């Protein structure tokens, strides 16, 4: 089994959880990942793709405009390494199934060349059309009958990387037009959070999140001491790094202090910076933390709205304040608000201490709904469900 993903930490961790489950069940599994994702690959059979999406974010920030500006110099070379690197890895490994992120545009070519199943992994609904809602990353408003048309955006991506696809096809001995539809589509999303549309084909499986048990792992001593010190707010924007991180840090610290709460900040790739004059014993700043270890203890979580963080917060019964930056994040922020699971999302540029404070106050009112969803999520084993589906094609 070959798992291939591309992107930052949130794109990598679900694949690693699935790889660990596959290896634990005795399967021969290899996983190809970008370099420097920040996710632990210990104990896995890993191939590094020569693409550093985390460095890309640090250099240019995380926004559509930044990606457009650096497309020729940074984005296209990175994607070429993913597309061609995946083909080379598959030829060397000769898997009996490929499980791939949508960014791995050569996955259909690999499946055609090796005559194996291709399992597409949609971390957010961006590829499989539905009338129920627009594609994540396009618009948040319900467009009714036009919702299906928003899913064309994903299919247009291949046109931006024709040269890399031709190179991969040449290595594989197929033509670029050899792009069969996926055998199956897996979504590590709970249907309790996003109800499954009735117009999706039966080959689309919403499994629930793919998780690796981290709760029993050793907790950093500084983090452990902070968790034991009383109520706190968690704040982390993952791989988001655009805008003014110091201004965001100031707003978060002041909003927490106004409510007599402490603040645990995960700086990630630089999305939050706590100014020196605002630091104190009531603020702990770390690079990253295990959501499974931290979120169950938090009063609320202020985050970017990535689906991994959202489902982690929901599983922990921790209300969210979503600050969406880009891509699918506005989709999830709007969904939580519509379903009564969170206050209205706050745009990063509007993250004042007053707005954060009001959102934190409102978030506490959503706790009963969040706790109800938590019970449903806790009954799911998304990793096992995904693995069972993949094995069924073997």
TrEMBL record:
Coiled coil: none annotated. Signal peptide: none annotated. GO terms for molecular function: hexosyltransferase activity; UDP-glycosyltransferase activity. Gene3D superfamilies: Glycogen Phosphorylase B. InterPro entries: Glycosyltransferase_28, GlycoTrans_28_N, UDP_glucos_trans. CDD domains: GT1_Gtf-like. Residues 2-114 form the Glycosyltransferase family 28 N-terminal domain. Keywords: Plasmid. It comes from the Bacteria. The keyword Cell membrane does not apply. One of its GO terms (biological process) is carbohydrate metabolic process. PANTHER family: STEROL 3-BETA-GLUCOSYLTRANSFERASE, STEROL 3-BETA-GLUCOSYLTRANSFERASE UGT80A2. This is Glycosyltransferase family 28 N-terminal domain-containing protein. It comes from Cnuibacter physcomitrellae.
């Amino acid at each position: 089994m070959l798992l291939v993903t591309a992107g930052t930490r949130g794109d990598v961790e679900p694949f690693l959880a699935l790889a660990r489950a596959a290896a634990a069940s005795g399967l021969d599994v290899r996983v190809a990942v970008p370099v420097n994702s920040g996710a632990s690959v210990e104990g896995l059979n890993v191939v590094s793709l020569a693409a550093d999406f985390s460095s890309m974010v640090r250099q240019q920030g995380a926004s559509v405009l930044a990606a457009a500006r650096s497309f020729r110099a940074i984005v296209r070379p990175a994607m070429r390494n993913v597309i061609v690197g995946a083909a080379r890895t598959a030829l060397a490994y000769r898997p009996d199934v490929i499980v791939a992120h949508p960014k791995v545009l050569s996955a259909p070519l690999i499946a055609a060349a090796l005559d194996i199943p291709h399992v597409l992994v949609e971390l957010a609904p961006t590829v499989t059309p539905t009338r129920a809602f627009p594609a994540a990353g396009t618009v948040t408003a319900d467009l009714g009958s036009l919702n299906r048309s928003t899913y064309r955006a994903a299919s247009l991506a291949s046109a931006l990387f024709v040269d890399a696809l031709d190179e991969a096809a040449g290595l594989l001995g197929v033509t670029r037009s050899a792009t069969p539809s996926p055998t199956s589509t897996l979504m590590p999303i709970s249907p309790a959070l996003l109800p499954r549309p009735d117009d999706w084909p039966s080959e689309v499986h919403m499994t629930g999140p793919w998780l690796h048990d981290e709760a029993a792992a050793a907790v950093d001593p500084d983090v452990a001491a902070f968790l034991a010190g009383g109520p706190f707010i968690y704040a982390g924007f993952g791989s988001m790094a655009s805008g003014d991180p110091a201004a965001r840090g100031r707003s978060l610290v002041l909003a927490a202090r106004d409510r007599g709460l402490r603040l645990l900040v995960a700086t990630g790739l630089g999305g939050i910076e706590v100014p020196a004059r605002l630091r104190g014993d009531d603020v702990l700043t770390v690079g990253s933390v295990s959501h499974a270890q931290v979120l169950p203890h938090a009063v609320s979580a202020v985050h970017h709205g990535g689906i991994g963080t959202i489902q982690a917060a929901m599983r922990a019964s921790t209300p969210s304040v979503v600050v969406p930056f880009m891509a699918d994040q506005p989709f999830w922020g709007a969904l939580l608000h519509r379903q009564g699971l969170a206050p209205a999302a706050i745009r990063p540029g509007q993250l004042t201490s007053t707005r954060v404070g009001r959102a934190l106050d409102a978030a506490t009112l959503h706790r009963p709904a969040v706790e109800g969803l938590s019970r449903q999520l806790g009954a799911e084993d998304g990793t096992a469900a995904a693995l069972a589906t993949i094995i069924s094609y073997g």
